[in-house]
Amino acid sequence: MSYLELKQVTAFYGAIQALKQIDLTVEEGEIVTLIGSNGAGKSTTLKTISGLVPVKEGSVIYKGQDITSRKAHQTTKLGVAHVPEGRRIFPKLTVKENLQIGAFGVKDKKLIEERMEKVFSYFPRVKERLHQLGGTMSGGEQQMLAIGRALMMDPDLLMLDEPSMGLAPIIVEQIFHIIKELNDDGMTILLVEQNAFQALKVAHRGYVLQTGSIWRSGKGQTLLADPTITEAYLA
Amino acid sequence: MTQVWDTLPQVLIDGLTLGAIYAIIALGYTMVYGILELINFAHGEIFMAGAFIGTAVLIGLTGLGWVAVMPAIFILLLVLVITGGLTGMLGMGIERLAYRPLRKASKLITLITAIGVSFLLQDIVRFITETQQNNYIVNTPSLFPGSLSISGLNIRYSFLVVIIVAILMMVALEFFVNRTKWGLAMRAVAQDQDTASLMSVNVNKVISVTFFVGSALGGATGVLFAIHYGTIDPYIGFILGLKAFTAAVLGGIGNIRGAMAGGMLLGLLEMFAAANLSAITAGLLSSEYKDVFAFAILILVLIFRPEGLFGRAAIEKV
């Protein structure tokens, strides 16, 4: 049984059909990436999993449990963390408060402290900025905070939506390094990226989305070597 | 000029009393606006309902003989807690029944619904009151009679009660919003609902809590008003709510500290105008024009600082 499984998922964004019968699986311990051009349905796929966009047809199964019609705040409690596109840091909360809200479902104060220390071990920069407002941080720092905030939930599945968007190449390297590190520590990751080259390099498997349907799928290395994909997304 | 100086102490006392009342009602407007971008016009009627519920509880307790034997402060706390709880639930219920089904509708439709709820509450209170007595104007038993007189200055005991309770409520709200988990969730929801829900925050629950807190404070303020001014009717919430809303805009709508400051400022300005308008304009304008004065200030502020005195201009971030 797969860790996460999407069966024939169809979803609409207003009147537009954003996803057409998507089939997708993620196994425990994998990094799976979703690539494709703008508007292909990558973000929508993540949103149907976390519950921000309702599933019209089909089903989403997580650890054997049907989570198709769960609301976002219920899905996250099951251990599915979703780092949204554009990072979406709360600009008027301090960095510390941004982390605290990530652990909103946790009552144990000591546990929150422990998790915060763990976030600092991945992102020492975040610790230096603790009392600053989230909105005053640089793009790279905000991305680190966004991932750190998601780690505060201690998720089993981490979904990242375009973590490299708008960042300098050196910061992108750092972010991908962290993604690899998190995965080495046992985190299952579903990664949406426009930066197809970097994403396929780090991922075990990948799916290529085109106008709401899955066009290709396979091992990261295989997709990297596929000339049609290279031509379409890596040129 | 001497007239201004002579009346100043009394203006300050009366202005602070009225200002504290505006300030707390303004909080209710600003909290709801901050989270839903909805101007909850029924909030003035929540205040009015609080004044009536508080008066009814007070009359009830008098009938039971409690008021005669127990300290007035204890009675006041009891009335505030009962009224705050009931108006809090009233506000929460209004959101659940009238606003939530319209969450995705245009803002204008919700606004008109809010005005409808206002009328409904006015008429319900009037109806209930008239079944109890022939008149819908009610006198609230005075809980803190008498006053201090310091060199010609008249300080009613109830003034002290209003100001102290009001300050305590504002401090408590500041603490709630800035230091508690639910306050944090409230600020997060006000900034970004979708992302807040990705943090396991139940957005609907946070909105309910916001309405409860705002309405409980509004209702408790109604009690303070009734105790201090002694006479209430089902229509006190309209003009008072409008002015409290003005105070919220003055301070920068959505800004909690701004609402407190705006309320105090408006109360002081209004009382200043009431005492001095006739002297300043050499009898041209009487104190009846105090509202014109207050609203003229509002218009001036909005012309030169549209974001309000304490609001920050919204910066669109990409």
From TrEMBL, chain A:
Gene3D superfamilies: P-loop containing nucleotide triphosphate hydrolases. Signal peptide: none annotated. SUPFAM superfamilies: P-loop containing nucleoside triphosphate hydrolases (SSF52540). Keywords: Amino-acid transport, ATP-binding, Nucleotide-binding, Transport. One of its GO terms (molecular function) is ATP binding. Transmembrane segments: none annotated. It comes from the Bacteria. Belongs to the ABC transporter superfamily. This is ABC transporter ATP-binding protein.
